[in-house]
UniProtKB/TrEMBL annotation:
The lineage of its organism: Bacteria, Pseudomonadati, Bacteroidota, Cytophagia, Cytophagales. It comes from Dyadobacter koreensis. Residues 59-264 form the HD/PDEase domain. SUPFAM superfamilies: HD-domain/PDEase-like. InterPro entries: dGTP_triP_hydro_central_sf, dGTP_triphosphohydrolase_C, dGTPase, dGTPase-like, HD/PDEase_dom, HD_domain, PHydrolase_assoc_dom. Signal peptide: none annotated. This is dGTPase.
Length: 447
């Protein structure tokens, strides 16, 4: 793989259009960022759970605030890499005219990285998969291909994000977001089909990155950008190099920010969080600065900022140092897992504490269990109704599905995807509200 091909301003669905003058106001990749910011799927992230239940009297991060912070960190990672590269290559901008935009590409991809996550996060993904593996959806196994069944029984938010950004939803126009090829490729952490199966020894195969319905589109992008293809019976590519920076930005943010939220909710004490973040501060005067601050939340904010700054420096340096193996598709680790000691051990300690005390905290588990029931319940109602549409009740349920999701396709897989597009796009609050209403637990207000 080489940067000359990997960086492309060609737009999905608008390949024949002339690229606008970048000197006017925004580059093509800044346009990607802005299109995402103003989109409905991005706005809906404000009511999708990050870790802790929403809403609450104490502000904690949701998917939207998380995505904005990841984009901020991602832009820094990309910009630092560009500046390091330019120091050793004085003619860099002439050789690679788009390389200066790498920070903007990373930032745009970071904004989009969670767009495909259903309500209630990983619990929502599990609920969708369970409906087909062990629930009422098992009856559809014989009505779809093996590859399509693999998609349904292992529903993946990463693949769903690629679908949201490229699928021609009714009335939205082909191309819809019309993002650049490089931005689209940069969200594909696992650039392979579901049939390839999970292989945790390969960083690009831990999950999968596109549904069967989007496979032709991904092939088109991968071919244009020159992504390295893995030989074999299944469709597998090596990662676009920028994916490593997007992943690092996400890893940095959720590991550090979850601690900050846990402190605000009194799940972790100040001393506990301080002991975890202090080794990442990389500031010999940090104790003096902390002593000058009275507010404990402000103390944690300072430690958080210092920790993120240190991790940005570590990951950007590693990406620059390993660029040759990354471009060759041979780098098989996340950046955060390969940073220097003692920082690597500190991050492992944070992960251990987070799993033990944060991700298994009672309210976190309760929202996951509730979300599991809600998502499963919605699928039990809407999928049979849409596929059969053989009763007054079914027809009324189908009327609740927005027209943009309705497909003209008649095959079972496409019709099931229609319902999954609708249900997976719901916010936590809307999913609960709709579930309660169609189950007769509550009644809609008349206004």
């Amino acid at each position: 793989m080489n940067w000359e091909k990997l960086l492309s301003a060609k737009r999905w669905g608008s390949e024949d259009k002339t690229i606008e003058d970048q000197a006017e106001a925004r580059s093509e990749f800044q346009r990607d960022y802005d299109r995402l910011i103003f989109s409905s799927p991005f706005r809906r992230l404000q009511n999708k759970t990050q870790v802790f239940p929403l809403p609450g009297s104490i502000f904690v991060h949701n998917r939207l605030t998380h995505s904005l912070e990841v984009a901020s960190v991602g832009r820094s990672l990309g910009r630092i890499f560009y500046n390091r590269l330019r120091k050793n290559r004085p003619n860099l901008d002439d050789e690679l005219p788009l390389i200066s935009e790498i920070g903007n590409i990373v930032a745009a991809a970071c904004l989009a990285h969670d767009l495909g996550n259903p309500a209630f996060g990983h619990s929502g993904e599990a609920a969708i998969s369970y409906y087909f593996t062990n629930g009422a959806g098992l009856i559809y196994k014989e009505k779809v291909t093996d590859a399509q069944w693999k998609d349904l029984t292992n529903f993946e938010g990463n693949a769903n994000a690629f679908r949201i950004l490229t699928h021609p939803y009714a009335g939205k126009g082909y191309g819809s977001f019309a993002l650049t090829y490089s931005t689209l490729a940069s969200i594909a952490k696992y650039p392979c089909e579901s049939l390839a199966g999970k292989d945790k020894t390969k960083i690009y195969r831990k999950k999968y990155g596109f549904f069967q319905s989007e496979q032709p589109g991904f092939i088109k992008i991968a071919t244009e950008l020159g992504l390295a293809k893995v030989e074999g019976e299944h469709l597998i590519y090596k990662r676009h190099p920028i994916v490593f920076l997007v992943e690092a930005a996400d890893d940095i943010c959720y590991n550090i920010i979850d601690l900050e939220d846990a402190h605000r909710l009194k799940i972790l004490s100040y001393d506990e969080v301080k002991s975890l973040l202090l080794p990442l501060s990389n500031d010999p005067k940090i104790e003096e600065r902390l002593d000058d601050i009275d507010d404990y939340d402000a103390k944690i904010s300072l430690l958080r900022a210092k920790a993120i700054n240190t991790l940005i420096g570590q990951c950007s340096e590693l990406f620059y140092r390993e660029q040759e193996s990354i471009l060759a598709g041979e780098f098989n680790h996340s950046l955060i897992d390969q940073i220097n000691e003692p920082y690597r051990t500190v991050m492992k300690n944070i992960e251990t504490i987070s799993i033990k005390k944060i991700y298994n905290y009672s309210s976190v588990v309760q929202i996951e269990v509730a979300g599991y029931k809600v998502m499963g319940g919605l699928l039990e109602e809407f999928i049979p109704a849409y596929l059969n549409n053989d009763s007054h009740y079914s027809r009324k349920l189908v009327e609740l599905i927005p027209k943009q999701f309705i497909t003209k396709a008649t095959d079972e897989y496409s019709k099931i995807q229609t319902v999954l597009d609708f249900v997976s796009g719901m916010t936590d609050l809307y999913a609960v509200e709709l579930f309660r209403k169609i189950k007769g637990i509550s009644f809609p207000s008349i206004s």
